[in-house]
Amino acid sequence: MSGVPATRVNNAGRAARRGRRPWALIGVVPFFAYVIIFLVVPAAAVMVEAFRANDGSISLTNLATVLSSKQPWLHSYAISLELSAISAVIAAVLGLVGTVALVSSPSRVVRRLVTTGCGVLANTGGVPLAFAFIATIGNAGVVTHLLADIGFDPYDHGFSLYSFAGLVIVYLYFLLPLVILLMLPPVEALRHEWREAAATLGASSRSYWQKVGFPVLTPPFIATLMVLFMDAFAAYATAQALTTGSVPLVPIEIGSLLAGNVVTNQANLGDALGLGMIVIVGAAGALYVFVQRKTARWLR
Amino acid sequence: MITTTMATAPPPTSAGHGPGTHTGGGVAVELENCRRTFGKVHALDGFSISIAPGELVALLGPSGCGKTTALRAVAGLERLDEGRVLVGGDDITDVPPHRRNLGMVFQAYSLFPNMNALENVGFALEVRRAPVAQRHKRAGELLELVGLSALAERYPHELSGGQQQRVALARALCAEPRLLLLDEPLSALDAKVRAQLRDEIRRIQLEVGITTLFVTHDQEEALSMADRVGVMRAGHLEQLGPPSEVYSNPVTNFVAEFVGSVSRLPGEVVAPNSVDVMGSRLSIPASTGGDLPIGSQVDVLVRPESIRIRPQADGTAVVARAAFLGAVVRVVAALPNGVEVTSTLPASEGHTLPAGTRAGIELLGDVLFVVERQGSE
Amino acid sequence: MKPTRTFRWIALGLLGLYVLIPVAASLQFSLEAGYKGRLSLTAYSQALAEAGLGTSLLTSVKVAAGAAAITLALLVPTVIFVNLRFPRWRAVLDAVSLLPLGVPAVVIVLGVLGAYRSLPSIITGTPVILALVYVILAMPYSYRAIDASVRAIDMHTLVDAGRSMGAGWGKLFSRVLLPSLRSGILAAAFLTVALSLGEYAIASIMGFNTFPVWLVGVEGNNPYVAVALSISALAFTWILLVALALAGSGRRRRSRGFGAGLVGPEGEDEITPSLAPEEEAVA
Fold first, then answer.
1. Which domains occur in chain C, in start order?
2. How many domains does chain A have?
3. A192, B121, B157, C73: which could form a disulfide with A300 (CB 3.0–4.6 Å)?
4. Do C25 and A132 touch (CB under 8 A)?
């Protein structure tokens, strides 16, 4: 059956033809314009205004204020960082355990159920979540009462939902599912052939995990930690609904400044605080990207 | 589909002579009466085999026949419900896999992604806490043995399938195991690479002199590489013997039909050891079914090379189709009673038998096997 | 180290408990409404009668609808365009769509207030601005959803086939492209709506009375009502998201590698964050 030349979808030709009309890129302009207007400009505004003093001149006053040890702002950063880091680590470890448990399940139904559930829960947060926990372990909460009835009222022993510890517990609710979703692919990608090959080569289970399993899981794990950290650090609604400012977190402080609880000569202080947030979240994001690239190469 | 030369080398003798590759010959391996059931499936059902030191035995069979289970049982990756595994005389049935000192090559994807080729190969020594210099040196030797010294720094994802399997082989041999296990190592590779690697593996195995158990569903692989071939079916061995024997002297109908190709000719037993096939009398030894009662309707199995199809103007057969396979032409002719026979011709003669030609069938050489015909068409 | 069955049951069981207890407690809390042991729907009926419920819900719904509409209007043509004409720009768009994850919502609102203070109040003074900003917040998820479904169809072939039969771009769009992208479009819309309905930070700081903002106000007066409303809102969002997940499961995709739908280079058409390079779409 000769005579019919092989036809191939001529994408290369198309692209070449198009390459000569770069003005056609105008099609992506709306997208970029939108992102610029509603994301880049506001972010830039924050970064620029951080360096503006009350009289409009460029100065480092705001930065100095934020970084000053006589001011409360460093403390807020410390608390925010602590909260994010602790929640991230706890969620990551517990989530990893959950992921391993899930992957070992032979039932497709269970896996589908948990995965879908995690997808839903990871997007749950904010006000409803805070209230749900108030109903559970708030000082009039159902579980609180239950525990009180058996003689152990946590509030008598120093526990409070409306505190740092409480926030960690609540944050876990949407961070844990996120871990499972993020770590499921890497854990599933751990081929059983590796474990078996390692065994035939003389490696005990511990050796395998030490030399192959964990090293392979570490980059995705770090990437996950970064995502969790960024998520927790930026969280506002849950914290606000739960603690209404009693726990000094940076996002809350910014909100407070914007809401007018502001001393007049602190106009651009919020921007300085915002700049700090951008820097911190940006650093975590950069680390994420770096680790991601490494992983993508391996787990091909 | 033409099997030409088959490796009928006697079990090779000991010590490899490659640069520090392996000390001492292989060990003998025995499986005794192994049984393993998964739910209702009998993966292994009274499976026994003896492998001589330095021998390469191929386990051949259709999927589900238990060959992989047998291999994994030797490796310790699969436990046995019943039976024993002995390596070099030691009963290792209850020994966990990481203490068995065996080398295993998997079908694919078994290289550790976080290590380059050199580190992968040296892994067994790393686990045994050998010093780095020693590991790298040994790994380097093995990489040279498989011809990949230049790629020592590459990571698995930077290697082709064939290269990965070579590294896997080098890795398996690193700690001088007593036994080499290969689980369909070539199945995931392209045809050309497969053929190349097949010879490589055999060459290395002979050079190192290690006892090897090789599982495959590809007959050509089994017949061309092995010292002995074990044909398996439903959890047990149907026949174990040198490739030529398995090919030419099958002991069961299954082996006759599974290994190589056959044509089935209808016939009738007319006298002890004598069968009438299409008018000719053939004498059939009792061992291949000639002892069936007189009058039995039988099918006589013959190899394509035992059939000659020739153009014959007054022949009773008609060529049904002729397939050009490059070096040969496979001709299928239909007998008046509808039965088809297959034979092959050199390509230069193939043009003499286009479809529709009247042809004569001649039976040469030995009949492979005789089976009672089941029911009616 | 194969996790044993007991380990698996305990781990997953504890997780399940942790997830369900707050839900169950909320239900009980709202049904008891302060009277231990006595269940009633008082809190719920009070909730319905609560002043401001209607207006705040309406505001939220309008904002959510607006955000979804803008999202689709902006992203669908863009993604189609890029995939058709400039495939190499996909990576760029992908990265850009992830930028919002690097800028906390509070910072965005800070910046919007600062930069656009002087804009006509029809934009900044009404919830319109909320819809506009929510598009950005949802972008990492909505972009991914649309991009994934675009990837899954062979757009070039569809377009070529349509054009060769004489279809103009308009027809092509409405009768060929949009229907094939339905799942991605729905996913993007759902995600945007879910996010918009629950967003609190920006809405409260800018002083708009959306549902979550109003809800926080209610908590002070009547916590039982607040919880009743919360659990209803949660239930609603969950049902939305589950419906989305189930709809998306019609297309099974096998994937490997790390990456959340938020953060990987490739996307998925479900809310479940997804997995990087090697997807095989079953179109």
1. 38-249 (1.10.3720.10)
2. 2
3. B157
4. yes
